[in-house]
Hints:
Number of helices: 13
Order of helices and strands: HEHEHHEHHEHEEEEHEHEHEHEEEHHE
Structural class: alpha/beta
Helix content: 25-40%
Strand order of the largest sheet: 3-4-2-1-5-9-10-8
Strand content: 15-25%
CATH topology of the largest domain: Carbamate kinase
Number of strands: 15
CATH class of the largest domain: Alpha Beta
Oligomer: single chain
Amino acid sequence: MTERAEIAKARRIVVKAGSSSLTTPQGTIDAARIDALVDVLAARRDAGAEIVFVSSGAIAAGLGPLGLTRRPSDLATQQAAASVGQGALFARYTSSFARYGVTVGQVLLTADDMMRRSHHRNAQRTLAQLLALGVLPIVNENDTVATDEIRFGDNDRLAALVAHLTRADALVLLSDVDALYTGDPRQPGARRITDVRSPADLDGVELGGSGRVGTGGMVTKVEAARIAGIPVVLTNAASAARAVAGDRVGTLFHPVDDRRRATRHLWLAHATTGQGRIVLDPGAVDAVVRRGKSLLPAGVTGVEGDFAAGDPVDLCGADGRVVARGLANYDASEIPELMGRSTRWLARELGAEYEREIIHRDHLVVLTDR
Length: 370
C-alpha cells in the first residue's frame, strides 16, 4: 500500500491549519474559510476517521479586535492578543462544527506541558479520552501564558508531537502554499516537489521564513515531517479535502524509518530542553551512542547547570557536542561525588541506593548519528 493510500485509509488523522489559512489580511477571523475547513474535517470524520485538529490563529484573531494591524513583537502584547483571540476562535469552531452535530473540545498546551513527563502523560490521556467520547479535539499552543523560554514557536512542531501523543496514522499540514518548492514559488524557476523520501530529496532546496501572521515557515514544516515519522502531506487549505482523501496533492513526506519510535523517546528528543549538561569520557560516549548502554557514574567527567532528579539533561562529549538526552537519576549537586566511580564502589561506600545509573538507557535518546 502506498503512503497516499494509507492516508485515505487512516483511522486517525491530525490536521494542522496555519494562521494564514484562517484569517483575513486584516487579521480577523475569516468565517468562510473556517466553515470551508470544518466542512472537510466533518466529512472525513463522517467517513470513519478520527480527527484531531491543531489550529493556529489565536494571536492573529486578536489583532482586529485590539486594533492592531500586524502581529506584535513583544511578548506581553502577543499574550493579550491571544487572550482575546483564543475565545473568539474557539467559539467560531464550536458554532461551525455544531452544524454537523460534532462536539469539540479545546486543548491548550505549552512546551512545558511536553517537557514535564507527568504533564505529557496527562495530555495524552485527555486527548485519548476526548476521542473515546466522540469529541473532536482542537489543540493550540497556550499563547496567553507561554514565554519565550517555554514555547513551541510554531504549531507545525506541536502538530507532529500531537500526532505521536494520539498515535495518529497521518498528518496533514495546511499552509499558505500548495506544496514544498525548491525556492520561493513566486519566483521563476522554482520547482514543485511532490515527494520527499529521504533527506537527499531536500538537497538544494531553499527553505523560506515565516509568513504574514504566522511564526512558522518551510523549515518548521520539514522539521515537523521528520519528527512525525508517519506519512505527512503539506499543502494549502484549498486542497484540504483532497489531501485527507489521499489524492496526489501537495508534497508527501514519506516516513524514513518504518519503525515508529517510542513516544517517550520522541518526547525526550523533540519536546524537552536539557536543564543542564553531563560531560562524558570517550568510552561513555561510545557506550551510550553506539552500544545503547546506560550512562554509569564511571564515564562522567563533569556536570553543568542546576537540575533535579527526573529532569531532562543533555549528554555531551569533551568537545561540548551534545550526543544524547536523558532523564537524570540524580540531582546535579550529587553527581560530582559520583564521577569516575563504579556503581559497586558507590553502593559499598555510600549505600545501596547509589547502586544505579546516572541515566538508564530506557530513559535516554541518542541525538547524533551513530
